[in-house]
Amino acid sequence: MAVGKKITDLTASGSLKDTDLAIVHDGKGTKRSTLTQLGEYMGTKFSNPNLLINPDFRINQRRQTSYKAGSTRLYTVDRWHILDCSATVLDGGLTVQSNNGGWLAQKLEKAVNGVATLSIKISEISGKLSFADSMNDVTITSAGVYSITLSNVNQFSMYLHENTSATIEWAKLEKGSIATPFVAPNPAEELVKCRRYYNFIASHFYGVANPNGFINEDLVSFRNFRINPTIDIKATYSSGVTESTLTLKGTNINGYYLYGRTRSTGDYALDVTIIADAEIY
Fold this sequence. Notes:
It contains 2 helices and 18 strands. The protein is mainly beta. The strands form 4 sheets. Strands 3, 4, 5, 6, 7, 8, 9, 10, 11 and 12 form a 10-stranded antiparallel sheet that branches.
């Protein structure tokens, strides 16, 4: 009987190197591969979690079709802000444009320590984009998918050079040095993530005539922001309302509750909009 070579135990993972060899079978026999080559192949088959929120720009609670910012940061579609440029919301991405040079960025709540990879897909471009750190950079002048490996990332930022317009389909930030495929997120799940930073609530209520007293009713409740948000409330009433107050009670942890007290000579309608802003500025 033929005796094969002895196979020893796998080296402890902590002492493995990228140049160490692994045994694979390609259908024609066993072959050897470095761990780097094997990792790159596996990276094309599986997708790492995307650490960006709203990476395909589909959540747009601010409900504008276009945004324009000067020298002050302006939030646009959820979690993305611009500086010295404009942004137009598309069904399949976001078009950004700058005449004098500007930025598109998403700031992270918590920095990604260690090695991470940024990727982006550009469907159209006129001009030049770049994203970089002090050790590395990528310059983009044509459509395609681009990636860059960085360390200790605290935001995804892209610089638009002068007279540049570009349409971005998606962006990705992931742990590790390999750019794995982009997977479109579930919009419902992304909306929940976005609402930790910004929540736009629009509600419509009806009330019955109450000329001699107040009706006190809990109209809207909301909670669970990144930090205590700045809250802006606007209300519009139909005719017949003679007196009304809206009172906000509660906390971020236990929940905010908006109470309405209205006196009216007839049935009425009440439209309420609430903006709760806990973005990173």
